[in-house]
Structures are given as structure tokens and as C-alpha cells.
Amino acid sequence: MDKSLYRSMAASIVHSGLSLSDLLAIKYGDIRKELEKGVTPICLSLTRKKTGIAFITFMGSWSVKLLKNLFS
Questions:
Q1: CB 44 within 8 A of CB 57
Q2: Which run of H or E residues covers position 23?
Q3: How far apart are CA 9 and CA 19, in angstroms?
Q4: Which of 3, 20, 37, 66 could pair with 8 in a Cys bridge, judged by C-beta atoms 3.0 to 4.6 Å apart?
Q5: pLDDT digit string (tens) for 31-60?
């Protein structure tokens, strides 16, 4: 079993404070520009699925590193 997906998800939840449902709702296009430019932390402007409330959060360098490894 490849654990890199789960490590990436766990790091993203820890760094951003996102719920699992909010994390799973993120599309590659939401982070593509910053991820490809190597920007850290990645700023996410999202709306909570459960409440519909807009918020801003960040994914730190550990999360970004694991995401890059996952996509490579």
C-alpha cells in the first residue's frame, strides 16, 4: 500500500486546519499556480462545505513538499 497519499492528506490537515471533507473538495486548479511556482505556504481561499462560510487558510512547506512528491 502506498502511504504517500495518506501522509500528504494528514500533513495538509495538520497545517491548514481543514476538515477531511474540505480537504477532499480541493481541486488541483485551486493550488496549481502556487504549487508550480514553488510558493510556500500556499494560500487557500475556500468555503466550508458544512457551513458555507468563506475562510482563508494555508498549507505549509511540509504539506507542499509531500504534495509535490505525490504528483511527481
A1: yes
A2: helix 20-24
A3: 10
A4: 66
A5: 999 999 999 999 999 999 889 999 999 999
**The pLDDT of residue 53:** 94
What pTM, to 2 d.p., does this model score?
Answer: 0.82
Q: By the 8 A CB rule, do 44 and 53 touch?
A: no
Angle subtended at Cα 67 by Cα 57 and Cα 61, rounded to the nearest 5 degrees = 55
Residue whose C-alpha cell is 457551513: 51
Q: What local confidence, expressed as pLDDT, does residue 1 receive?
A: 52
Q: Give CA–CA dist 43/2, Å, rounded.
A: 27
